[in-house]
């Protein structure tokens, strides 16, 4: 999280609007990050996820040990094409085809791979060399799925951070940055043609931590509050996540994509952090994730888009001890590295005195 397109003409197929592929079939999912040297094995993770009844999972690569462990489990997974491979995939359709064969097709149908996230937080990011190759990579990966007859099974997307927005408050003012827009619009046109959503990494925690003097902590945590009033929409918001999602909808509408769905691909709250990271503690992390789980279970939309049910992948499954950056980066997990819960939001881990959950075989 953060704060010229080359393709082969004979592989670029005619993109007519098609029926939307649904990579996310529920409302609650989780990100299974693995930048750690002490977390449970993929087989143990499967047991943990099934016991928690979490079916939708995202990973940031296409690790074969994970994909093998997920086979036959009923878990639905979105794999990731890392940013470091975008240039290669954009310039070489044959490499894109090989990647999809090796990392997606070869695991189907046993492993329910439902999506490919092409890059992560590319637009608005620090590596400008990737901005211009993202669309080409997405097209070549899509063409590969189509050539392999997987395009109606596997959804293509990319996750965006809040760095793509120039303005996001109030929600009705949401617009993309000018330097992002020239890359974003063609990408959105392509995603609209193939039925993909706009994927957003949304962190009320980061917003609060950046300005704790002016942001009501209760508003960020889904706790009772007067909230904010948007005078253009004439709507009141009682939590920040809804406002962030509607800011994304406003930005999409501003560039002509008023029918595109917004899905939250990351959201969470750190249970610990540096002294400079206001609000990073266990109490707030539990409150945010507990209230978020309740909010998603209601299967309702946002004030501006009440019919678009909010769907979100929580960040993250585990605390990851090898992630660089602020201390918060190591403390987003709902579970600790040993499989015990970081705090209680209704899931069961390796609680003291209980038998080991990870030793159980879940049917």
Automatic annotation (TrEMBL):
EC number(s) from the headed UniProt entry: 3.2.1.39
Keyword Transmembrane helix on entry: no
Highest taxon above the source species: Eukaryota
A Pfam family annotated for this UniProt entry: Glyco_hydro_17
GO BP term (any one): carbohydrate metabolic process
Residues making up the signal peptide according to the UniProt record: 1-23
Keywords: Glycosidase, Hydrolase, Signal
Family: Belongs to the glycosyl hydrolase 17 family.
Alphabetical list of Gene3D superfamilies matching this protein: Glycosidases
Protein name (database record): glucan endo-1,3-beta-D-glucosidase
Organism of origin: Cajanus cajan
Species classification: Eukaryota, Viridiplantae, Streptophyta, Embryophyta, Tracheophyta
């Amino acid at each position: 999280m953060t704060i010229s397109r080359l393709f082969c003409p004979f592989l670029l197929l005619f993109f007519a609007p098609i029926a939307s592929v649904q990579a996310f079939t529920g409302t609650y999912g989780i990100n299974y990050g693995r930048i750690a040297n002490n977390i449970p094995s993929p087989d143990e993770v499967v047991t943990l996820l099934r016991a928690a009844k979490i079916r939708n999972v995202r990973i940031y690569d296409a690790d074969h040990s994970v994909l093998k462990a997920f086979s036959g489990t009923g878990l639905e997974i979105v794999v990731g094409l890392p940013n470091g491979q975008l240039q290669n995939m954009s310039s070489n359709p044959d490499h894109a085809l090989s990647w999809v064969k090796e990392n997606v097709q070869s695991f189907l149908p046993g492993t329910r791979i439902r999506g490919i996230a092409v890059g992560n937080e590319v637009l608005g990011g620090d590596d400008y060399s990737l901005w211009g190759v993202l669309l080409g990579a997405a097209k070549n990966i899509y063409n590969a799925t189509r050539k392999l007859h997987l395009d109606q099974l596997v959804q293509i997307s990319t996750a965006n951070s809040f760095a793509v927005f120039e303005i996001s408050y109030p929600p009705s003012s949401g617009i993309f940055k000018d330097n992002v827009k020239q890359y974003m619009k063609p990408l959105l046109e392509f995603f609209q043609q193939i039925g993909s959503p706009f994927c957003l990494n949304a962190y009320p925690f980061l917003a609060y931590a950046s300005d704790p003097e002016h942001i009501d902590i209760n508003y960020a945590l889904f706790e009772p509050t007067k909230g904010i009033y948007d005078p253009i929409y004439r709507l009141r918001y009682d939590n920040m996540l809804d406002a962030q999602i509607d800011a994304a909808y406003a930005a999409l509408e501003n560039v002509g994509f008023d029918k595109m769905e917004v899905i939250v691909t990351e959201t969470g709250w750190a249970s610990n952090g540096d002294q400079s990271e206001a609000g990073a503690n266990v109490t707030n992390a539990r409150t945010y994730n507990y209230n978020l789980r309740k909010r998603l279970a209601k299967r309702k939309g946002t004030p501006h888009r009440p019919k678009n049910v909010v769907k979100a992948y929580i960040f993250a499954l585990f605390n990851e001890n090898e992630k660089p950056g602020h201390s918060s980066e190591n403390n987003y997990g709902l579970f600790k590295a040993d499989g015990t819960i970081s705090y209680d939001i209704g899931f069961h881990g390796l609680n003291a005195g209980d038998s080991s959950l990870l030793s159980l075989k879940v049917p």
